[in-house]
Amino acid sequence: MRKSTVLLVLLNLFSITGLMAQQVLEGTVVSKKDNVPVPAATVIPDNSSGKGTSTDFDGNFTISVDQKEGTLTISSMGYTTLEVPYKAGEKLYIELEDEINRLEEVVLIGYGSAKKGDLTSSIATVENVESIASRPVSNVNDFLQGNLPGVTVLQQGGDPTQEGQIVIRGYGSFATESPLTVVDGVPYYGPPVNPNDIASISVLKDAAAAAIYGAQASSGVIVIETKSGKSGKPKVAVDVYSGFQKANNLPTALNAEQQARAYNTAADNSGASRLSAHDAEQNPWGQTTRTNWMDEIFRTAAIYNVNANVSGGAENVRYMTSFGYQKKKGVLIGTEKERYNFRVKTDVDLTDKITIGENVYYSRTDAVGTNTSSAYSGSIINAIYMPSAASVYNDDGTFQGVVPEELSQFAGAYGDVYNPVALLMRPTTTNPTDFINANVYFKYDILDGLKFKSTYSYNYTGQRYKQFQPRIPELGRTNLNNYLYQSNATTNKWIWDNQISYDKTFGKHHLNATAIYSSQHTDYEYYYQEGQGFSSEEPYNQYMGNATSVLMPETDVYEDALTSAIGRVMYNYDNRYYLSASLRRDASSRLARSNQSDYFPSASAAWRIGNESFFDHIHTLNDLKLRASWGQIGNINSVGYYSYDVPMYNTMVAIGEGSGLDDKGTYLGRQSNPNLQWETSESIDIGLDASLFNNTLGLTVDYFEKRTKQMIIPGLEDAHQGTLAPDVNGGEVKNTGWEFSLNYNNNIGDLQYNIMAGASLLDNKLVNLNGYSNSGIDYIPHSDNVRSILTPFRSKVGQPLYSYYLIPQQGIFQTQEEINAHVGPNGQLIQPNAVPGDFRFADTNGDGKIDDNDRVYMGNYQPDVTYNFTLNLDYKNFDLSMFFQGVGGAKAFNGYKFSTYNASLQGYNLDNRVLNAWSPENTDTGIPRLSTTDSNHTYGNTSSWYLEDASYLRMKNITLGYNLPEKALAFMGDQASLRVFFSADNVFTITNYSGLDPEVGSNGLDIGRYPLSSVYTLGLNFQF
């Protein structure tokens, strides 16, 4: 009895001692990427799995350990396993890195998501979406530029009203090449989404990937997922930046004395009399420089941006609401853009099987730009034309013309020029656009693996435009009338998608099947009216009812409907062998009933070699996958709304003797084509994805071939009909290319670094124009021009679309002997009107003269190669990122030189580079002699002299950030973080292009395009 009592006491003592020896640890596990709590993460102390625990809903854990010091192992799916040391009594804050293996990433696909390693088609993802908050980007286009191989963004200059054009794997049609944008699973047709709302971006590049979106996806698909709320504590994020924009590389005009001297030289060279306006004795006013017009129209422009969102949720409800505001002054005075946007997004689990949600987005944008694409009225080119002797204002505060009124006898010598400050500041313009996108969905988990989802989306776009153009009384391009232009347009669109999917694993077999029925309908109405002759130009009088003359209104209206049935099956065996196939039937109201519907199939396969047993012995190569795909997509974007039955045109006509344009007439303006069929995009893709060196290096390589068949082209006009020809099916375009991307992650002690690089090679070619086969015509001319004189574009079979079609320029004649030696087959002078200092042109067809028959094809604007390089560095609380982007093989037609180097027009001021024009004393130059005549057509020939290399390397962005230490923000809670940053965009550009900027847009035609600007901002990202 005594022995048993002693034994019991000893056991109790040991038990108490053991309890006293155990330590209790507390901690929180979050994602390092965004500080979001990681629930259900496994926490194991000292490799004792039996004593492990898991984090709760808010990422918190409590665990008992036997030692005062040791190691915790924390792991969670999608994150790199981490070991951290602990000491008794401390509270741990643990940040998990995202899993490095790129093939394990989850990416967005059509109507769903999948691991990158399971993909069988070409889908690219943007790796660094979170950096959007640190860059002054106003739309996705800006952010995509240079980020993804095969995705080219052709900027349309820096005008606030313009957006870059996205081209995926080359031009395939003469119609608008616009990828379909899908936001949160629903096609999106509104203005740019607020970049700060974006959580992830995928680009579906080949037909097999995009086929599930059918008729509007032939140019690729951009799939965007917006940020969602997560269950847990409310989280507030505020992103703010402010800074300025500044234009670079601006041209310089001649000063007043130089302009007079240049035109006197030009008159002497042509044998003409000098103009009195350029005589210092007769017009001393014209010898004094009073204005630098570039300084007057360009400014350092402010930019402001604020975004705030609140997210969170309970166990069954998740919400996110965001607000954004951005204001960007344009670097050209009088131009700016202002945007407000608001989003509410909610998901509610009604039961374990039923989830409903809504996503409402509203934006209001008011942007005022200016015309910089006209060689007559472009704002920038008029700042070159305007004489430097002129002032901006007269003494009475009115705008001054090319000369003051008292010197009107000299006005004709300076040409029909607008005062560029008046051109930018005189009009009163408002251009608001309201947009609402409201989505609701219902999701029901019917059985294990079987789900149904119904989504309804409504879009409304309301555009209102009003511009009042006052009189232009000053000398130059005078206009004593005034105008009011007013229009409004409304678009109502609904989309209803119903989707049922089945996803199940049977042993080593995994099956995913999806069936979708989709329908959408669009109503559009446009109204435009012009009024003239306002007696008063005060703001209170700028209304249509006060016009003395109101022109006949213009209207446009259409309805558009599209219905689709889609089926897709994805299968893999043992995560090694993958097959995918889809079939889509589209029916469009844009085609005649007999041709309204068509079927578009796709198929793809992949072999994940990295999951084969023999692959385990290859240590440097961690994962490897080969894939191949083929698919077809119909393109409805190239079809006019009523091409099969073109509505009648209307106009104003004069009926009867002495009548005016006061009767309405109706006429047949274009022929119909009820036989028009779908334009089809067909592509193949062969790709490789690999992960190497302990998953630190990711590699992707793709070869693709994309053909557009039955391309819709303008038909040939019949002079006997007296109408425009109908559109017809009759062409084929082929794009082939290679894409490469690398992603390397590693660290050196506390320095973590990430290197990303990508490149794409592209060859574009017009294969045939079978629609013209009976005529023998193998080309399509394009109307883009410079002052209706230079017409550089033509699309010809065997050449790229929008090729330059130019007369080769072979330098400058230095002597009369060179001119005399340039003879044709019969010994006649090929350029009989040339004199030394004029251009020599190639007689390519050997007929002894220079004309349009000597033109040859010389490439196009779309680059042969695009490339990018990104370096991201993280050291303790500091981060630094640098992004370089460039293109090679791009060519631009610098039409700016036609009127700013050419003294044979109306006396405009010239670019100061003409000071280096040819003369007997200055023969080592590429600029021809100055002359008031152009009898040799030195400037008037559409020649290769205007064609320049537009390749460039640009430091697109550099950002330096600093995260405040957690201790400094501890009083705000464990979710608080604050990062301050400095960012610069378009820091420098290395290029041989002589224009303002090599990214000229418009197929490469540059007439003084609004330039991209350097942008410098300071900001902060604050979360709590």
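That was protein one. Protein two is written in the same sequence-then-structure order:
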Amino acid sequence: MKKKVLLVAFQFVIISVSGQALTGIVVEAESRKPVSGVKVGIENTGIWTVTDQSGAFQINYNANQTLVFSRAGFIEDKKTYTVVPSSLQTYAMQVASIRIKEISLAAKKKNYSEIEIKEEALKNIQAFSLNEVLEQIPGQKLQNLNLNEFKPIVFRSTQPTSVSDQGFGNKSFGTAIVVDGIPISNNENMQSYTGNYSPIGRSWQNEGSVFMPNLIGFGAEGGYFSNTNYGADLREIPVENIESVEVVQGIPSAKYGDLTSGLVTIQQKSGRAPYRAYLSMRDGTQEYNLNKGFQLNEKLGFLNVNLNYLSSNSEPRTKFNRYQRVATNLMWTVYSKNKNIKNSLSVDYGNNFDNANFEEEDVTNLIVKNKKRDIRISNRFNWRFKDWFFDNLDVNANYSQGYQNTYRSSILNNGGDLVGTSITEGVYTATYSPPSYTQVQEIEGKPVSMFFSADLKKNVRTKSGWNHNFLIGTSMRSSDNKGAGRLGSPETILSQFAGGGQAFRPYNYGENVKAEYQFSVYAEDNIFRKFGNYIFNLNAGLRYDNQFGASVLQPRVNSYLIYKNFKFRGGFGIASKAPSINMIYTGPRYYDMILADLRLPGYYNLGVMQTFIDYADNKNLKPSKSMRSEVGIDYKFAYGNIGLTAYYNNLYDGFTNESYGAKRQLANLQINDNGTNLPTYTIAGYTNYYYLQSRMVNALQSKDKGLELMLGLDKLPVRNISIDLNGAYVETTNRSEIDRYFNKSVSLDGSVKGDVIWGLYRPFDSKYRQFNVSAALNYHLPKAGLVITLRSQHYLIDDQSIFNPKDLYAYINSNLDKVLLTGEQIDDPNQFANIKDTGYLEDNKSLDKVFHNINLKISKDFRNGFRFSFYANNFLDLKQTQTTFSEVTGRSTTNLRADLLTLSFGAKIEYQF
């Protein structure tokens, strides 16, 4: 019996590695010159090789498999043989150019719901950074060029007018950006001045400050600069060095972790490429770029260099708010002699600088700056085995280190306030702030992250025609911040609220923050089978993550079935996102309470302060999670293809702030008058002081359901015309499963009457609906090298429905116990009147008509290496207004709709040599 099992296993392995040698030469279609560095792979397997300097290659091939030829700057080509050729084959690849008829000018779908944007389509978008590229994805909004605030991204969800929406913030934080297999992490960003707290208040309306950039990034003066607790800042990623962008809005491979809401994978250019320089201008923005791909020699491989500089003013007529970006990339790619080993070492350096410097007429001399420097060293190693059980080994490693400095200064003349300075609890004599001083708020962060992953792949073909691609792997990442943290002095940084509140103390990140780690293992099988008119594919994987000590098991499945011109798709998966270290490490919270403020001009000033300290780090915060599902159908017809996808996503255990009651002992002072001499004081006793504290919890739920349509018409009866259309309808429901606190009789000094301190109100839903349609009409003359694109976007539905019934159900007593109310107590207006807020709150908004964005782009390629592009946004100069009704005033007002594109022009000139 044992011998039979070994024999079957041996036959299984023999089948998996069998194949005949196929040899060939890859040449450029027009010049017929050999093309080196072309990756030649077999579709749906991990088998690959690379052409040498003479364009030659050899690969093991089985009949009916599909060869895929790809290299930056060329159009991907595919070839299938029913019989393996025995002679040398020649393959011609066309240079990617608008002079080629087959060039792709729009985003296209791939296997499941992934959307891919290739190099020439990226050029057609004419983007300054990645955020503009992703505006082409269904459901996104075309936006005015404003690079003077950070740019997050969220897929398959409503797009709010403010990034402070908690559902948007969680999903943005859960969107992963992966460059050449290495994730870009924002988990280490701690540029937060307030320690993630909710301001003291007596109202159930307080939502906290987890995703409140006005408290996080000093951005109220023209832009939110710091993206703490959000996803990657997309304006930091230039487009020119990108070969392709793939967006996974649905269920990602089990290989990818630390995400909940989407995946963007970026492939950068590698291999030989000509010099290419360009200048791009639009409004107050200028961008300069230079790149080149060198082939050093056969042994030393290829060296790719990209240099990028961008400068942008939010208002071209002034210099109030300026953003500058310097991005450089160096990638060295080398292959072994027999082309079975590939290693890429890259060094990326970025310097980003926001500067809001107002004119001298500003009496406060307000200056706001945000500096960010990063260096990333990454290595990607791939070994294709010849005589081993596994086919491929992939090893990726990265080390990233940054420097961040957020700075705000202004002159204040409201000094003479009492200031708490103690770093221990107790009663003490306080100091006074200067009458006039320059207030400086500054944060210094030094984020450090590391990433490592190792994957083994195995391709197996069975006798019955099933093709299996097995993947097993592991990864590890760490997050730390060694910066000096929150800098300044309490005497010149007054952040108290009336009657007390959280006050400022320095907080050193390097001394208080500990490195947090994530470990993962994963496995998946990509199954492929052709039978008759059917093609079946199933990708099933399982991922285990230990994120900052919390374990999450994540099954993921994607599948499709092709029958003739139809493709039926479906997927389901669970994903998780670890909290940022800024969410975990809040630091001590100091509450300075003024007990006495005695002033006799010319003789004395006596201030007495009591400081409370709460240690509020959120060590028990768990990862947020997302359950994602989708079904879809695609159909190919004579003139193009159409696809429809329905999805339902549920983000749960999301990050939010929760209020809770706190009680401390407030000292009662006995003041001893000494005439014109400084009074003395003694503590005569203590009284209860009540206030609201906050913590970060996993209590947010955000559900999205919707439909996506993608239609491509590229073979119309009218020559040289193609149409790409997409539409997205989505409904989003946000709900924070936390109590709302309310008491209209609690005074600001924390004193209360009776035993009822706060009333507790149940959570409520916020609902949103959006429906927009985008279309691109392309007129393409390949022989003339001309492309004219008319792109439009139409907003049909944009609704908001927030209904708060003010559902009182319990109260907090003087012992901070939760006491449930009976229905009779709630309905009786004479009982517990101090914690009852009658009526309801309703906030409904909707479009009163359809709105449009219509843009024009023209590109002309000259055979001498020059290419010129011109574009005009809202080139018809539409003045679109919206009428809104105010329930407060009872009047309707009509204003220009602020989120629509304004008339603007841009141009780009490129030279390749």
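Residues 656 and 697 are 6 Å apart (CA to CA). Keep this in mind for the problem set.
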